[in-house]
Amino acid sequence: MKLGILSDTHDNLPFIEKAVEAFNKAQVDLVIHLGDYCAPFSLRPLKGLEMDWMGVFGNNDGEVNGLTEASEGKIRRGSLSLEIGGKRVFADHINPLKDALADSGHFDLILYGHTHALEIYERNRCLCVNPGEVCGYLTGRRTVVCLYLDELSEDRVDVIDLG
Description:
Blueprint (H helix, E strand, L loop, with lengths): L1 E5 L6 H14 L3 E4 L18 E5 L7 H7 L4 E2 L3 E5 L2 E5 L6 H7 L4 E3 L6 E6 L2 E6 L11 E6 L9 E4 L2
Parallel strand pairs: 1-2, 2-3, 3-4, 6-7, 7-9
Antiparallel strand pairs: 1-10, 5-6, 8-9, 10-11
């Protein structure tokens, strides 16, 4: 199973559309958004995804009710802890405990956003991934990530630069 991961879109519609195009072209099976959509209108491009998606709220997502309604319930409060393709996945926007979670041995994949910095590393046989930012406001780099769940390793993560 192939996942598409994005975070920190911050209402940047042109690059949200580019992220959708990238995921459709990569033929991912599921997209996970790690928060900071900002306004409900920024979810419109996600309707162009050819696969299902889910997400978590970020610290800049003030319109919780509007985002929940616009996403048809695909955005969840709190963190996600789920099994996908036989792998144990933990996803959250802000995750100061990511290394402790990796060390716990309870997860195969830890996903987080918030810092806007692309980060991919392995810890205690757990892959930890921050896909960076779609908006490009802090780093100037706009990225999303694709990965195969059956090949979880640092060198098997595809970073897609959106321009």
